[in-house]
């Protein structure tokens, strides 16, 4: 491509990708070779090459039916990405779902949905990118930018493949799939962390308020000296502990970051029901 007028950095990225692809495939076009095989031979070869790796992907464990997992195995396509390659950009349509089998990626968002929180997270083997395709027939818009940090290998599933999988999941499997995505989704993890922190701050403020109410017990009269000393020591120690554990909570309660909106669950396309 030396005769083409393209920037040097782009030429270097192309060279790195071709070098990496050659190291991994030794020049063999794996997908083209597999497509040229008869169906039974292609399925058997793909099972041998891919099935063990796919079984290590958490959300694929819900497919108790062997034939469905094998159908997924037949539909996936292996892909390679060189370092510093964009998988998807925020605001762009999600055109495929990537299942990572090797390498590291960085997922970031420029939106304010995680104000005060961590807008960046790492993806690695077993993670996925593009699960929004389960939400319906139209291509969804990506809420994050995903970029490779190292050389990455994985499998991709296209929208038609996702529709096929969703249409063959029963109600129990769909519910299990939703729970699995909640567990491994960075959006759900971030929201859960914010929710727990907000609940803890609320608990701290309630406890501090209760302690202060106890401190303001009327000094009236029926308490003997021993009881008064006991209450005084208890309140003093409680206040000491509360000031130590919830200093930021009591000093600037209004500065706590707001809890972001709860992420939406996967909503399977109605046409598949």
Automatic annotation (TrEMBL):
Keywords, in A-Z order: Calmodulin-binding, cGMP, cGMP-binding, Ion channel, Ion transport, Ligand-gated ion channel, Nucleotide-binding, Transport
Domain of life: Eukaryota
GO cellular component: membrane
Basic and acidic residues composition-biased segments: 262-273
Record bears the keyword Nucleotide-binding: yes
GO molecular function: calmodulin binding; cAMP binding; cGMP binding
Cyclic nucleotide-binding domain residues: 69-132
One GO term of the biological process aspect: monoatomic ion transmembrane transport
Positions of region (Disordered): 242-273
Stored InterPro entries: cNMP-bd_dom (IPR000595), cNMP-bd_dom_sf (IPR018490), RmlC-like_jellyroll (IPR014710)
Keyword Nucleotide-binding annotated: yes
PANTHER family xrefs: CYCLIC NUCLEOTIDE-GATED ION CHANNEL 12-RELATED (PTHR45651:SF33), CYCLIC NUCLEOTIDE-GATED ION CHANNEL 15-RELATED-RELATED (PTHR45651)
Protein name per the record: Cyclic nucleotide-binding domain-containing protein
Organism annotation: Arabidopsis thaliana (Mouse-ear cress)
